[in-house]
Amino acid sequence: MAGSVLEIKDLHVSIEDKEILKGVNLTIKSGEFHAVMGPNGTGKSTLASAIMGHPKYEVTSGSITLDGEDVLEMEVDERARAGLFLAMQYPSEISGVTNSDFLRSSINARREEGDEIPLMKFIKEMDEAMDFLEMDKNMAQRYLNEGFSGGEKKRNEILQLLMMKAEIGILDEIDSGLDIDALKVVAKGINRLRDENFGCLIITHYQRLLNYIEPDFVHVMMQGRVVKSGGSELSKRLEAEGYDWIKQELNIEDETINA
Ligand SMILES: Nc1ncnc2c1ncn2[C@@H]1O[C@H](COP(=O)(O)OP(=O)(O)OP(=O)(O)O)[C@@H](O)[C@H]1O
Ligand SMILES: [Mg+2]
């Protein structure tokens, strides 16, 4: 299939009547890697949740479309079937559902009824992906994220991403809590998907991840908006200098959403 386009236009999102996102504009095309950076509490995870359709986040105006289709009209599972994938900042633990069963049903949910992935093919693909990500095979039979270490959860999100064949991936702080070697493995997983059929939005605080995954575009969020965009030189400057220069340049005193 030809590439996809996720278009976010003037997106306003509220939580319990408090406006968090105040007009986000962002377009992600397949083939592109976008990094989103920004100080704590400026709306990055809210953006990820709103794209995926978390019920707590109310879109009050603006639009999100995937290849022209209205994403805001879709239920969460429909968004996943349409090709959107979210790796959450804090992945949920689901007791009673094994990692393997969860993966297989997620894959099947994206396929037509009657065209479920054959069990042996699934096992082969999962084995291969787990080897690639240097994961312990026992993780497949454990309950989803239950008792997983912080780093294991992140690696497991990448296992899902690799197997789900998503078109647009949204990765919220996929590098948090990873040790130095695990960071490289996770980056290797994301880079494996880099082709004209896959686009990615990578929310991160640190250049260390972007040293391994060269972003095509870097965006900075403050006050619930994307306030600055550039290329990979932007994240390098942020790493070296922090956010003050952007605040000065744009005359922003308080970067939080309360401003
Ligand atoms: N469910 C919620 N209930 C109340 N407030 C919320 C909720 N979710 C987010 N917020 C508020 O919205 C603001 C933005 O939060 P968000 O999680 O999007 O920030 P972030 O940019 O991802 O920050 P961080 O870098 O720390 O992860 C914060 O002030 C936060 O307290
Ligand atoms: Mg966040």
Automatic annotation (TrEMBL):
Family assignment from sequence similarity: Belongs to the ABC transporter superfamily. Ycf16 family.
Q: Read off the Gene3D superfamilies from this record.
A: P-loop containing nucleotide triphosphate hydrolases (3.40.50.300)
* Residues in ABC transporter domain copies: 6-248
- In terms of superkingdom, the source organism counts as Bacteria
A Pfam family recorded for this sequence: ABC_tran
In terms of SUPFAM superfamilies, this protein maps to:
P-loop containing nucleoside triphosphate hydrolases
GO MF entry, a single one: ATP hydrolysis activity
What protein am I looking at?
Answer: Iron-regulated ABC transporter ATPase subunit SufC
InterPro entries membership: AAA+_ATPase, ABC_transporter-like_ATP-bd, ABC_transporter-like_CS, FeS-cluster_ATPase_SufC, P-loop_NTPase
The organism's taxonomic lineage, starting at the top? Bacteria, Bacillati, Bacillota, Bacilli, Bacillales
**Keywords annotated in UniProt:** ATP-binding, Nucleotide-binding
